[in-house]
Amino acid sequence: MAPALAHALGHRPRECTGRAAGGQHRARRRPADRALAARQPHTAPLAERGPDAAPRARAEPRTRGPRRACGQFGLDRRHRPRRPRGAGRDGGRPPHRPAAGWRPRRLGRGLATPGRRSAGPAADKPDAVRRAACAPFHAAAVVLLRQAQAALAGAGPGRRDGVAVNAPRLIEREVPPRTAWALEQAGVAPLLARLLAARGVREAAELDDSLAQLLPPSGLKGLPEAATLLADSLQRGERIVIVADYDCDGATACAVMLRGLRLLGAQPGHLGYVVPDRAVHGYGLTPTIVDLALEQQPALLVTVDNGIASLAGVAHARAHGLKVLVTDHHLPAVLDGAVVVPEADAIVNPNQPGCGFASKSLAGVGVAFYVLMGLRAELRARGAFAEVPRLDGLLDLVALGTVADVVKLDANNRRLVAQGLKRMRAGRAQPGVMALFSAAKRDASKAQGFDLGFALGPRINAAGRLADMTLGIETLTTDDPERALALATQLDTINRERRDIEAGMREMAEARLDGLIEALAGALPPAVALFDADFHEGVVGIVASRIKDRVHRPTFVFARGADGHLKGSGRSIPGFHLRDALDLVSKREPDLLAKFGGHAMAAGATLAVDDVNRFAMALARVADEWLNEQDLTRTLRHDGALPPEAATPDTARLLDGQVWGQGFEPPVFCDRFELISQRLVGEKHLKLRLRQAGRLVDAIWFNHIEMLPERATLAYRLSLDEWQGQQRVQYVIEAAQV
């Protein structure tokens, strides 16, 4: 094996340094020395201790940098220049570190055994055994990488020594002036009118978030048949079993369906649910899950957030005499170039062929809510109610699942989320939701979409990643506040373990990525696929997302599953439909993918152990064909400069009161600043003091440790920081151009 590739693909990660501006890839050699002052006692406000400790921090988690001492880093201090790559303190090459001498830093409890790796099926093997087990994959990678090196080397910006690669390009959003003026005339604040117009809002009526403005359920194909099926089962007293998914969308959809069916007349003893174990059963309504459901003796199976591609599972259920209702939002399966759907009794899915529903971005929990609205209408037509039940009490769950699943927040989804947030702020959410706020140390009276996506959602998801999603569903369905708090506390503990495992996996994945780039002579490939025998199956999706954010490339991360196959989770970038790419890969390599599915931006795939490098090359070829250099350059769209007089707590509160999220991004402003001081806080966050036009303002850059020059162009979000009862404006930095 060539020395460079042996180093790249082996298990001795190089020491790492921080990220380039905006979280993108840079050469990862640790400087020989940092002129950091002596560590000072840490007495910073909560907002300086990192996003997990700050009740109101509004930072999106990104790639974690190395741990360094906390201390002041003054701009007036002269710093030692970096030594050339590979140079030791005496100018020569540094001594070789044995592979077994490295250990991931922050690993879950019970996972960091001395002399062993951290997590995954190879956790109980010494390093030498583990390297030997992976040697065949590395040898194959050498051949494949050499074959593709010439083609991939020109596929976009690459790495150069000490220079950031694929740094974000800052682009100001266009604001239609007539639209902004019309919104102002309708009573919208001028700044907010400009922000909304830049995001496609055309008239003030779109800002009406009342329930009356929701799209009518009648537009969903299959809803009348589903409502009839459910109404018949309820009136006959038949047992109904919900088949859930193991993520937050699936858990909230299951809770909505169980609570909604009870509201509409189902007896609690006639309802049940099953949820797959990620490591044992895999995804969706499989025949094995049908067999588990049969133990509850149901007459009707109802899938939530899954089922549209479960051809075998639905057929197995029908063969056992069960009726099947599929509610889902994923794309259907494609066989031999044709879209196929399972032969269920009814299917409700806005993305199924022939469905004209205007909102194609409903989450699984949103589809479940619409099915309940259709069922209520059917029962009302049958005269089943003396008083029609209200379903708006379920909207806090709908909001949580919608935001956590990162679906596009179109106008209809924004209304669903807005209604759910109102219930949370008023203290009228489900006991489990309120308990999750408490466990996450967040204030429900000031709930925002950020809280759902980065505090509550991850705690529910952690159950499906490391334990059993039954814990998450029970948290959301219990009516006992004390039990809800106890369950939420367990979820918080599991989430802390998840973060530890993720940190170790991310370090290993980044080392693999650095090796891959070095093997390709500094080029970033157009798509990335990573595997290590120690990767944990439950965390591959999160790590794929972090790597994607760093290099702005479609990314898959694989771990060995309980059945011996590799289970991978992928995340994509705009312009690259990941599920369609997998479909093309399956056509070109018919025996490569055991199964696959997903969305445009997220997908999953199962491979044989020997096929990971073959998959990496097949995916890279598709990406090379579909993506150009502009697609492969990360862009950060901003809203221009924030007028100095607008940088007030009132403006921050105005913006916090809106619904922002995927496809309706929160405002990011951009301007030139003079840096007065900067220092590290919490060992991995950069705390800044900025001056602009004679005005001083505080700022923080979460998960970033690289110091900035005296003047820089900064892209930032406006944040309302609270400390000891005082509110002040703080900028949360997203990217920098120096």
TrEMBL record:
<dbReference type="InterPro" id="IPR004610">
    <property type="entry name" value="RecJ"/>
</dbReference>
<feature type="domain" description="DDH">
    <location>
        <begin position="239"/>
        <end position="402"/>
    </location>
</feature>
<feature type="region of interest" description="Disordered">
    <location>
        <begin position="1"/>
        <end position="125"/>
    </location>
</feature>
<feature type="domain" description="DHHA1">
    <location>
        <begin position="529"/>
        <end position="621"/>
    </location>
</feature>
<keyword id="KW-0378">Hydrolase</keyword>
<dbReference type="GO" id="GO:0003676">
    <property type="term" value="F:nucleic acid binding"/>
</dbReference>
<dbReference type="InterPro" id="IPR003156">
    <property type="entry name" value="DHHA1_dom"/>
</dbReference>
<dbReference type="GO" id="GO:0006281">
    <property type="term" value="P:DNA repair"/>
</dbReference>
<dbReference type="GO" id="GO:0008409">
    <property type="term" value="F:5'-3' exonuclease activity"/>
</dbReference>
<protein>
    <recommendedName>
        <fullName>Single-stranded-DNA-specific exonuclease RecJ</fullName>
    </recommendedName>
</protein>
<feature type="domain" description="RecJ OB">
    <location>
        <begin position="639"/>
        <end position="734"/>
    </location>
</feature>
<dbReference type="InterPro" id="IPR038763">
    <property type="entry name" value="DHH_sf"/>
</dbReference>
<dbReference type="InterPro" id="IPR001667">
    <property type="entry name" value="DDH_dom"/>
</dbReference>
<dbReference type="GO" id="GO:0006310">
    <property type="term" value="P:DNA recombination"/>
</dbReference>
<dbReference type="Pfam" id="PF17768">
    <property type="entry name" value="RecJ_OB"/>
</dbReference>
<feature type="compositionally biased region" description="Basic residues">
    <location>
        <begin position="77"/>
        <end position="86"/>
    </location>
</feature>
<dbReference type="InterPro" id="IPR041122">
    <property type="entry name" value="RecJ_OB"/>
</dbReference>
<keyword id="KW-0269">Exonuclease</keyword>
<feature type="compositionally biased region" description="Basic and acidic residues">
    <location>
        <begin position="49"/>
        <end position="63"/>
    </location>
</feature>
<keyword id="KW-0540">Nuclease</keyword>
<dbReference type="InterPro" id="IPR051673">
    <property type="entry name" value="SSDNA_exonuclease_RecJ"/>
</dbReference>
<dbReference type="Pfam" id="PF01368">
    <property type="entry name" value="DHH"/>
</dbReference>
<dbReference type="Pfam" id="PF02272">
    <property type="entry name" value="DHHA1"/>
</dbReference>
<comment type="similarity">
    <text>Belongs to the RecJ family.</text>
</comment>
